[in-house]
Amino acid sequence: MPTPKKKTSRSRRNMRRSHDGLSQPAWAIDAKSKELVRPHRAFKGADGAYYYKGQQISAATKE
Which residues have a Cβ under 8 Å from the Cβ of 61 and sit 6 or more positions away? Predict the structure, then answer.
């Protein structure tokens, strides 16, 4: 089995892993309901209707 010719330094090893860190998801506040929502996604409001960019895109469903 092949083995490396030289030891990988701490610096080079850490540079390789630099993109592995976790980042916080982006959140926005809806202007109408003041709820936290994910940007560029439709979300279900408290009334059961779906909203996108502050506008209602589907009617509320009765369950």
Answer: 48, 49
